[in-house]
Amino acid sequence: MKFKYLNSLFISLLVWVIFTSLAWGGQVVTEDTRLWARKALQEEKAIETVRGGNTLAIMYFQNKTGSPDLDPVQKGLTIMLITDLSTLEGLQLVERTRLQALTEEMGIGTSGLVEPGTAPRVGKILGAEWLMGGDITGRGPEELLVKSELLDVQLSKSIGQQASAGGLADLFRMEKDLLFKIIELLKIELTPEQQAALRKPCSTDSKALMAFFQGINASDKGDYEGAAELYEKALKNDPGICEAGPALKELQALGLVSVKSKAGDLLKSLKDQTSLTDQLSTEDSEKREQGPETTPSPVSIDVQF
């Protein structure tokens, strides 16, 4: 009887640790996060019995264009989707840094790219009810096709697919295409105010986005000074780009980079500047967000159980 009670208590604590931590923010993979990943793998069997209600894990997208220059988009798309979806009440998003730490502990490396056969295992360890992954294909920056699939981890079943086509300059619009399809598949009802907020892009400047994504890669590799420089570059291109400012401040707050007067002045000056994104009128934004007249046909996506 005592054993059953202790076992039940352990599982309850495990659930609490997993799901209360989902609210933690930041882009730096800290030692605490790595410690969590090691413990999660050690207790994998127990964690696999836990199912997180309304919890979504978004994997990195696989760059299959043959162009290494597009590798930063693999994590970038994931970050943009997590940033948008995390604003919805009732939906829990697994932190990107947890996915990063877990894949590193599993020996996958700093790329965090998960093979199709490994994805379900990662989803279960992360305690996710739903898992999303996808591919980036196409002929290069001017002609891309982003495909993704939403899976029910417990049932090992596909809920639906999403796809959007365009060039690198249309990345912000393509992310929104995937975003609203996910919301539709999860049967989440939005108020007009929520829809308007979600339609605001992270940035409409592809150079700013790529610099930010490159900064994330540098940070994951432990090159914090390089990451800070790339975040600064992103902010110079678009002062209103999502997450780059907080990511730079996080590096400084953790003491991972020196607080240079240059960076401090930049962050201070950005407060009074207007984002390129913010300069778009509602009409302009709607025009920019409209996709091609033709909708991509259903595609085969390399994410499977």
Describe this structure in words.
- Residues 1-24 and 274-301 have low confidence and may be disordered.
- The chain is built from 13 helices and five strands.
- By secondary structure, the chain is α/β, with parallel strands linked by helices.
- Helix content is 48%, strand content 14%.
- The chain is globular, with a radius of gyration of 19 Å.
Mean pLDDT: 80
**Name of the CATH homologous superfamily of the largest domain:** TolB, N-terminal domain
Number of helices: 13
Q: Name the CATH class of the largest domain.
A: Alpha Beta
Order of helices and strands: HHHEHEHHEEEHHHHHHH
- Tell me the strand order in the biggest sheet: 2-1-3-4-5
Can you give the helix content as a percent range? Answer: 40-55%
Strand pairing plus helix content: what structural class? alpha/beta
The CATH architecture of the largest domain comes to 3-Layer(aba) Sandwich
Tally of distinct domains: 2
> Beta-strand level of the residues, as a percent range?
5-15%
Question: Main β-sheet: number of strands, strand sense, barrel status?
Answer: 5 strands, mixed
- Low-confidence segments: 1-24, 274-301
Choose one word for the global shape. Answer: globular
**What is the fold-level CATH name, i.e. the topology of the largest domain?**
Rossmann fold
Radius of gyration: 19 Å
